[in-house]
Design goal:
The chain contains 13 helices and 27 strands. It has 567 residues and is of the alpha+beta class. Helix 9 packs antiparallel against helix 10 and helix 9 crosses helix 12. The longest helix has 17 residues. It starts with 5 loop residues before the first strand and ends in a 20-residue tail after the last helix. It is found in: Nucleus, Nucleolus. Keywords: Activator, Nucleus, rRNA processing, Transcription, Transcription regulation.
Length: 567
């Protein structure tokens, strides 16, 4: 997920082709304007290196761990090298060239490479031997060099460049090798995708591929050995006028930034490309920008909008099928499953809007919620049976494949339907509600989304669901036609219900609620230390017991012991 963003108010960025920030020894180095490079740690300024007028930095700084040095281009044709420990640039070394330099390309295991605007290169390890570049000048005056990067493979270094010929919309991807101090194996290929426009690109060092995003939202990966594009992601909500930026987070995740100039906002998204699922998203209030770049440094994304720099920290889970199916989000059109659209769906949506505004942390608000009319309670199962049974039967009969491709809205509707079947005496439906409930409890879901849906149900239904889950855990409800929920699945559902309806247990002290609290306390005591969410849910329950003056029961003993050693 994304954390709160941080705006670097005292930093003014220039429009370099490379991103004007790098990470070095738990610090950030940022090109501040044209004459300064600042060192920032924990969002505080530690140091700065400044050039005297009229000199200026013409590229972003690069750090080399091999010789613990910083490299940067000054005045378009001079390489400046200095130590991160130097107080000023006076102790640095200068190397002036006879032709303009585009950038310095960092390498992980070797010293960086200087790339000239013509396409020629110079190995920085040979700076004290010769300043003459090597290789071909393959970039003509009619082409604009936009981007460059490099990777190291056994026995050689590969350099990649992207150019745009003047009066053309077709980008050209170039590559060549450096072996034993010589450049060879030049090749180039046009990047075309019908009538679509290339909006942004980045290099995937984890999978050795060039990543592109196009005006229709398609993301392609181009393996560098043949550049044959393959579809990585289809983002259906992107429109052509939007500014886009893309960055690789790790081998399985990418970040996409979408700048909407009309709404004056930027939508930041984190995608699991292995399972094509949206892991996190965040909306930033931003101004329209012409120069738009995104990069991943350590565990943060950095977004450049013209002169503005924004940091967005994040944390990320490993790419697993369970995470993709159970906890991800998707941006498919939200066409909810509906039956008798003018009755149930309309009333549920109306109730949902009201429910979302409720703070369920107090008894007062809880009582307000209890008094609210509930569309689910008024549901006539006889009227909706024909249509809801189609969904329910498919859910039960098609097994795990269907249960891993559902939406939380479907789960919510099925759950409400199962409760009405179980607690309404007269119904013409042939579905066993226990079978349907067991299938629901064993399906996958996105927890954050499901919690929002579960807040829509009546407190009475929340009590009933908790009782059903406890009955299943105590084997009071068994179904032979399908697999029963595991202990972990039961615990997860109890956790979701307590998060979404903590007010159930804080409501007035009637006998039913008291009995449920006692059962829950026993259940939680038995699960102590087993699940990662236990401490949170136990703290919630301790608060409930304190609120209601309930003495805790004795916990299970025998799992832990204390040994005393005499010294």
């Amino acid at each position: 997920k994304f954390s709160d963003e941080f705006l670097f108010k005292n930093v003014t960025l220039k429009k370099f082709r490379q991103f004007p920030a790098i990470s070095i020894k738990e610090s950030l180095l940022i090109n501040d304007g044209s004459n300064s490079i600042v060192k920032i740690q924990d969002q505080k300024l530690l140091h700065s290196w400044n050039l005297e007028h009229p000199h200026f930095f013409s590229s972003a700084a690069v750090y080399c761990s091999e010789d613990d040095s910083l490299y940067c281009i000054v005045n378009n044709n001079t390489l400046l090298k200095w130590s991160p420990d130097d107080e000023t640039l006076n102790n640095g070394s200068e190397f002036q060239f006879q032709e303009p330099v585009f950038s310095v390309i960092p390498l992980r295991k070797h010293k960086p490479i200087v790339l000239f605007s013509s396409g020629k290169v110079l190995l920085t390890e040979l700076l004290y031997v010769s300043l003459d570049p090597i290789g071909e000048a393959f970039i003509s005056e009619d082409e604009e060099l936009l981007w460059a990067d490099g990777i190291e493979i056994p026995s050689e270094t590969k350099i990649f460049c992207l150019t745009l010929p003047k009066d053309s919309t077709s980008y050209k991807f170039h590559s060549f090798s450096i072996r034993k101090g010589k450049a060879a194996d030049y090749s180039s290929k046009l990047l075309e995708n019908g009538q679509l426009t290339l909006k942004s690109w980045c290099f995937d060092h984890y999978n050795t591929a060039f990543i592109t995003i196009w005006s229709d939202g398609t993301v392609h990966t181009h393996p560098v050995h043949n550049l044959t594009p393959s579809l990585l992601l289809q983002h259906k909500s992107i429109k052509d006028p939007h500014k886009l930026a893309i960055s690789v987070i790790n081998a399985d995740h990418i970040a996409i930034a979408v700048n909407d100039s009309k709404k004056k906002e930027t939508k930041l998204e984190m995608w699991d490309v292995k399972f094509t699922s949206l892991k996190a998203k965040k909306t930033l209030k931003t101004s329209p920008a012409e120069h738009y770049q995104l990069i991943t440094l350590d565990s943060s994304l950095f977004l450049q909008l013209d002169e503005i720099l924004i940091e967005i920290p994040f944390n990320i889970d490993k790419s697993t099928l369970a995470a993709a199916l159970g906890k991800s989000s998707d941006i498919l059109s939200k066409t909810e499953y509906r039956w008798n659209a003018s009755t149930l769906a309309t009333e549920i949506e109306k109730q949902s809007d009201d429910a979302m505004d409720i703070d369920c942390s107090s008894n007062k608000e809880a009582l307000k919620m209890i008094s609210r009319k509930n569309a689910i309670e008024k549901m006539d199962t006889g009227e909706i049976a024909n249509e809801i049974e189609i969904l329910a039967n498919r859910f039960i009969n098609e097994g795990s494949m269907f249960k891993t491709n559902n939406r939380e809205s479907d789960l919510f509707n099925l759950l409400c339907f199962a409760l009405r079947l179980k607690y309404k005496k007269k119904t013409a439906c042939s579905i066993d509600p226990d079978v349907l409930l067991v299938n629901i409890f064993t399906s996958t879901y996105r927890e954050s989304t499901l919690v929002q849906y579960m807040r829509k149900i009546l407190l009475l239904d929340a009590v009933r669901l908790l009782e059903i889950l406890l009955d299943i855990s105590e084997n009071k409800i068994t179904v032979s036609s399908c697999d029963m929920p595991s202990d972990a699945q039961i615990f997860d559902w109890v956790f979701i219900l307590m998060k979404s309806h903590i007010d159930v247990l804080l409501s007035p002290k009637d006998k039913k609620i008291f009995k449920l609290r006692k059962r829950l306390d026993t259940y939680l005591s038995e699960k102590i230390g087993i699940y990662e969410d236990y401490l949170l849910i136990q703290n919630m329950f301790d608060m409930i017991k304190k609120e209601n003056n309930i003495l805790p029961i004795k916990h299970t003993v025998g799992k832990y012991f204390v040994e005393t050693i005499d010294i």
